[in-house]
From TrEMBL:
Main location, first listed in the record: membrane
A GO BP annotation: response to antibiotic
Protein name according to UniProt: Transport permease protein
Transmembrane segments: 21-42, 54-75, 96-122, 134-158, 165-185, 219-238
Membrane topology annotation: Multi-pass membrane protein
Any matching Pfam family: ABC2_membrane
UniProt-recorded Gene Ontology molecular function terms: ABC-type transporter activity
Family: Belongs to the ABC-2 integral membrane protein family.
Keywords tagged on the record: Antibiotic resistance, Cell membrane, Membrane, Transmembrane, Transmembrane helix, Transport
Location in the cell: Cell membrane; Membrane
Amino acid sequence: MKSPSIVMLRRNFKHIARNPTSVFNAVLMPIVIMLMFVYMLGDAFDVGVDYVDYATPGLMLLAVCYGLGATATSVNSDMTKGIINRFKVMDVSRGAVLTGHVVASVLTNLVAIAALVGVAFLLGFSPSAGFLDWLGVAGIVVLLAFAAGWLTIALGLAAKSVETAGLATVPLVMLPFFSSAIAPADKMGQGLRQFAEYQPFTPIIETVRGLLNGTPSTGYAITAVAWCVGIAVVGYLWSSATFKKRA
């Protein structure tokens, strides 16, 4: 007999496959943004290296955010359309329902990032990372996707409707643009520079960038892991409390 978590995961993937818009947002939109910045705007940024090498780490993490809207609307739809009541009758655990959404979100993000990195190599991306560095990149990416997944589940559960659930993730999509993903923080104007330096995505991006360049920074890595763990804990506790209240 299959576990409830696996059943929920399969269900979520079927829903994703039936929604081409969510597939576009999660996989193709980050690639479109990469092409736009590298080809159209890359020469406008003085970053000391080939712009594709600078931008790829940030765009990898931006790709994590682009599929979150579909996750938020999916979990909210489950709550507002009575699906959860059916699961309760079938004795499906709360953990299985939420975990299925999170795991589906993480796996979708990994597919999107793999596609993005493939396009980056076609554009001339040439990282200096060794095997252990790539393992570190994978670990940070999965940790961020896991944390963002739980926070997105919480936002989706807290929203009053499917429409507002989708809008709730917009700040998460926009936040990487106000980090060091596209341009170095020290080249930004007063106020924006400080915000970019101290928001969560910058240390995460700089950790991935350092690993891909073969020059990892322990300080950035500790800060990045701390942010991811903190976001995951907040998202999990918030999701569990909201689910228990609404279900």
